[in-house]
């Protein structure tokens, strides 16, 4: 997969979910490693989600992951905590914000079933 394909699929999966009512602010940069290498960011701000194809320097944390594994996390087939503990996901920055972000993804997925 190319970076463009990974980014487009990630954005589609993330924006397909209803986020209205989610409060707070989290900014996570996703660094894709290996095939399709590149960076993009996801920001939750006052119930709106932004997914943009560039680095974000005012971020809370960075997820370093393969494109394949990040898409699995977006689809809900790979738990981010399991990915972290098995070495499939590396995190730089605030672990607390990373956990908050993964809990929000889980909550959004459950609310949209």
Can you walk me through this structure?
It is a single chain. By secondary structure, the protein is α+β, with helices and mostly antiparallel strands. The protein has one domain: Nonspecific Lipid-transfer Protein, Chain A, CATH 3.30.1050.10. The protein is 40% helix and 29% strand. It has 4 helices and 5 strands, in the order αββββααβα. It has a 5-stranded mixed sheet. Helix 1 (3-15) runs parallel beside helix 2. The longest helix is centred in the C-terminal third of the chain and has 17 residues, at 95-111. The model has no long low-confidence stretch (mean pLDDT 88).
Annotation keywords:
113 residues, alpha+beta, Nonspecific Lipid-transfer Protein, Chain A, 5-stranded mixed sheet, globular
- Seen as an oligomer or otherwise, the chain set is single chain
Spatial extent as radius of gyration: 13 Å
| CATH structural class | Alpha Beta
Largest sheet: 5 strands, mixed
Please report the total strand number as a whole number. Answer: 5
Shape: globular
The residue fraction in helices comes out at 25-40%
Residue windows where pLDDT falls under 50 for at least 5 positions = none
What is the string of SSEs from the N terminus onward? HEEEEHHEH
Major sheet strand order: 3-2-1-4-5
Tell me the distance between the termini.
27 Å
User: How would you classify the helix and strand content by structural class?
Assistant: alpha+beta
Which percent range describes the beta-strand content? 25-35%
Annotated CATH architecture: 2-Layer Sandwich
Please give the domain count: 1
CATH names the topology as Nonspecific Lipid-transfer Protein, Chain A
Task: Find the CATH superfamily.
Answer: SCP2 sterol-binding domain
Mean pLDDT: 88
| Helix segment tally | 4
């Amino acid at each position: 997969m190319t970076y463009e394909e990974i980014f487009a699929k990630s954005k589609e999966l993330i924006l397909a979910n209803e986020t209205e009512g989610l409060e707070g602010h989290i900014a996570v940069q996703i660094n894709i490693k290996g095939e399709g290498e590149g960076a993009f960011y996801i920001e939750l701000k006052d119930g709106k989600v932004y997914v943009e194809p560039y680095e974000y320097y005012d971020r809370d944390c960075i997820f370093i992951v393969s494109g394949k594994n990040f898409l699995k996390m977006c689809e809900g087939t790979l738990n981010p905590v399991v990915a972290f503990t098995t070495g499939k996901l590396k995190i730089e920055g605030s672990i607390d914000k990373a956990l908050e972000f993964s809990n929000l993804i889980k909550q959004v997925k459950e609310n949209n079933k």
